[in-house]
TrEMBL record:
It comes from the Bacteria. It comes from Streptomyces adustus. Signal peptide: none annotated. This is Response regulator transcription factor. The lineage of its organism: Bacteria, Bacillati, Actinomycetota, Actinomycetes, Kitasatosporales. Residues 147-212 form the HTH luxR-type domain. GO terms for biological process: phosphorelay signal transduction system; regulation of DNA-templated transcription. InterPro entries: CheY-like_superfamily, NreC/VraR/RcsB-like_REC, Sig_transdc_resp-reg_C-effctor, Sig_transdc_resp-reg_receiver, Tscrpt_reg_LuxR_C, WalR-like. SUPFAM superfamilies: C-terminal effector domain of the bipartite response regulators (SSF46894), CheY-like (SSF52172). SMART domains: HTH_LUXR (SM00421), REC (SM00448). The modification 4-aspartylphosphate is found at D54. GO terms for molecular function: DNA binding. Keywords: DNA-binding, Phosphoprotein, Transcription, Transcription regulation. Residues 3-119 form the Response regulatory domain.
Length: 217
């Protein structure tokens, strides 16, 4: 059973999400909050697997809440809730450690599957939105310089694995590409996240695009 916390300043949105997610046998909304500060406390209290986080809220906004949650020991996977399919604020949230984002108009049957995906630690991001976010991420010269400096400290094999993350590949797909075991790739990813200072695969994938290594053979 994957435990979910919903953080949104619109009570009806929380009710809608609770109704949809609780209808799945393997998902349970265990808590909700209506601003960022209360969301952080809900995470501390309920220890969920997934947080669905609105960004634009009164008081503490979602971006600050994401940063605070990722400072906790063993933080949950955080998925941004938005009415837009891509903007700079969402990009900032991904850089802060969100694992992806969902548009609030996502059909209920798709929502359940995407939350399951997030609970497993995978990126939740539509392909069209991903293209726009990646384009936005590479517009910043400072981001490119910082990314290239971090990647320069990686081994050749680690760069190849990072390029796979930038393409959104799973560990199994990267392993098949590099003729290595999935367990070996899992080890590379874990060590690489530490080296890069990334909290998850999504953040590392954005860094790969910033550094211009996606598609590295």
């Amino acid at each position: 059973m994957a435990r979910v916390v919903v953080v949104d300043d619109e009570p009806m949105v929380c009710v809608f999400l609770r109704t949809i997610l609780d209808s799945a046998e393997d998902l349970e909304v265990v808590d909700e909050a209506h601003d960022g500060a209360a969301g952080v406390e809900a995470v501390r209290r309920s220890r969920p697997d997934v947080v669905l986080m609105d960004l634009r809220m009164p008081g503490m906004d979602g971006l600050t809440a994401i940063e605070r949650i990722n400072e906790l020991a063993e933080p949950p996977n955080i998925v941004v809730l938005t009415t837009f399919d891509a903007d700079q604020y969402v990009l900032r949230a991904l850089r802060a450690g969100a694992t992806g984002f969902l548009v609030k108009s996502t059909p209920p049957e798709e929502l359940i599957g995407l939350v399951r995906t997030a609970a497993q630690g995978h990126t939740v991001l539509s392909p069209s939105a991903a293209r726009r976010l990646i384009a936005a991420s590479t517009d910043s010269l400072s981001a490119r310089d910082r990314a290239r400096e971090l990647v320069a400290a990686l081994t050749e094999r680690e760069v190849q694995v990072l390029a796979g993350l930038g393409e959104g590949l799973s560990n199994a797909q990267i392993a098949a590409r590099l003729f290595l075991s999935e367990a070996t790739i899992k080890g590379y990813v874990s060590r690489m996240l530490d080296k890069l200072g990334c909290v998850n695969r999504t953040q590392a994938g954005l860094l790969a695009h910033d550094a211009g290594i996606v598609g590295t053979p």
